[in-house]
């Protein structure tokens, strides 16, 4: 392994064709701002860049297949790109000690992981892998369909005040390790059954130094769940039972006035406008639709256009315009 240093840009380049970079590194530990790793490295070992506190970017080759534990800590990195061939993300958390980290990015051809709204999931979206510690929102709704919250996935959250968990989650391997400002943990369960969650308290990580403890969890029984996607300002409402008809009314739509689109399933026949912060004492009903329907909210002026979602070609299905007074 060789090091190259560019004083003008404060860039430390690590060049290695060994399969693994391991051992705690100290080269330019106090003055490096950028780290670039080059070569055919496959494994980044545990704690290799511990306390590189001035580093703002790290560039990783696509050859990397495994992240060890705490590969870099206490940096100023805001964004990390997941290597194309990454397969193993250490269960104790490769990146959780980077308190400035806001988002992940990823190539769409990555076969093992997926990034949505800057958050890292397994490719099939069944496992929440990591919410970046400095995720820029006060509210986070874990997407409907996630079944497992793995160890270190929700550690050191710096901004999230409300964490909301869907009915589909049945395994929690770690929860709220040293969060900064958490105020509510809301877990949704089905209306028709008292389904259980398997809690695994590995290394006593659950609720360590958290103002919210397991006894403070707010359980909500409902057949509906709303996932909020911050980047496209969309809420997707999901149903655990497509055979029944429901009126949707929930506080998630009132928590953020930047929402511009709501997508909901055929089991929802009525949406109460009391769910919206910008609307009050009005409700509207949508009839005769199939699959998914979208309500687009234009400038929050109480005008709604309902049309079929993912239709090819895109056709209006009910020409329904409502002006809520």
Quick overview of this protein structure:
This protein is an all-beta fold. The protein has strands at residues 2-6, 11-15, 20-21, 34-38, 43-44, 57-59, 66-67, 79-82, 88-89, 103-106, 113-116, 119-122, 127-130, 139-141, 148-149, 162-165, 171-172, 184-189, 198-199, 218-221, 224-229, 234-239, 246-248, 261-264, 268-272, 283-285, 293-297, 303-308, 320-323.
Short descriptors:
0% helix, disordered C terminus, LRR_5, Surface antigen BspA-like, Leucine-rich repeat, LRR (right-handed beta-alpha superhelix), six-stranded mixed β-sheet, single chain, mainly beta
Would you mind describing this structure in some detail?
- The protein is mainly β and 325 residues long.
- It has three domains: 1-101; 112-222, Leucine-rich repeat, LRR (right-handed beta-alpha superhelix) (Alpha-Beta Horseshoe), CATH 3.80.10; 223-325, no CATH class.
- The protein has no helices and 29 strands.
- It has strands at residues 2-6, 11-15, 20-21, 34-38, 43-44, 57-59, 66-67, 79-82, 88-89, 103-106, 113-116, 119-122, 127-130, 139-141, 148-149, 162-165, 171-172, 184-189, 198-199, 218-221, 224-229, 234-239, 246-248, 261-264, 268-272, 283-285, 293-297, 303-308, 320-323.
- Strands 11-12-13-15-17-19 form a six-stranded mixed β-sheet, with no helix packed on it. It has a six-stranded mixed β-sheet with strand order 21-22-24-27-28-29, with no helix packed on it.
- Strand 27 and strand 28 (303-308) form a beta hairpin.
């Amino acid at each position: 392994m060789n090091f190259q240093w560019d004083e003008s840009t404060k860039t430390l380049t690590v060049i290695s064709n060994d399969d693994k970079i391991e051992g705690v590194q100290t080269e330019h530990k106090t003055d490096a701002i950028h780290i670039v790793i080059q070569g055919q490295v496959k494994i980044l070992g545990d704690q290799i860049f511990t306390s590189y506190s001035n580093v703002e970017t790290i560039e990783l080759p696509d050859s990397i297949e495994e992240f060890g534990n705490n590969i870099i800590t206490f940096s100023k990195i805001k964004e990390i790109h997941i290597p194309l061939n990454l397969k193993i993300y250490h269960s104790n958390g490769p990146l959780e000690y980077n308190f400035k980290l806001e988002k992940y990015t990823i190539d769409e051809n990555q076969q093992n992981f997926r990034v949505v709204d800057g958050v890292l999931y397994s490719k099939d979206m069944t496992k929440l892998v990591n919410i970046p510690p400095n995720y820029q929102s006060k509210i986070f709704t874990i997407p409907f369909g996630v079944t497992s919250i793995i160890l270190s996935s929700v550690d050191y959250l710096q901004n999230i005040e409300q964490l909301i968990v869907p009915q589909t989650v049945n395994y929690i391997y770690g929860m709220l390790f040293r969060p900064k400002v958490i105020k509510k943990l809301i877990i949704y369960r089905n209306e028709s059954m008292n389904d259980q969650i398997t809690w695994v308290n590995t290394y006593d990580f659950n609720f360590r130094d958290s103002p919210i403890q397991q006894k403070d969890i707010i359980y909500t029984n409902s057949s509906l769940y709303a996932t909020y996607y911050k980047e496209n300002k969309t809420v997707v409402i999901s149903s655990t039972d497509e055979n029944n008809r429901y009126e949707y009314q929930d506080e998630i739509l009132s928590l953020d006035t930047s929402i511009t689109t709501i997508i909901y399933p055929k089991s929802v026949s009525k949406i109460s406008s009391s769910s919206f912060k910008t609307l009050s004492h009005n409700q509207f009903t949508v009839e005769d639709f199939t699959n998914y329907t979208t309500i687009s909210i234009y400038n929050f002026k109480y005008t709604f256009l309902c049309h079929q979602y993912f239709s090819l070609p895109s056709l209006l299905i009910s020409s329904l315009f409502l002006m809520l007074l």
